[in-house]
Amino acid sequence: MELRISNLSKTYANGVVALDNISLTIPTGMFGLLGPNGAGKSTLMRTLATLQECDAGSVFLDDIDVLDEKDAVRRVLGYLPQDFGLYPKVTAYELLDHLALLKGLASRSRRREVVDGLLQQTNLFEVRHQRLGGFSGGMRQRFGIAQALLGDPKLIIVDEPTAGLDPQERVRFHNLLSDIGDDKTVILSTHIVSDVADLCANMAIINQGHLLLCGPTQELIHDVSDKIWARFIDKRDLPSFQIRHPVISSRLLSGRTLIHVYSETDPGDGFEEALGDLEDVYFATIAGRHRAATRCAD
Ligand code: ADP
Question: Do 264 and 227 touch, CB atoms closer than 8 A?
Answer without folding.
Answer: yes
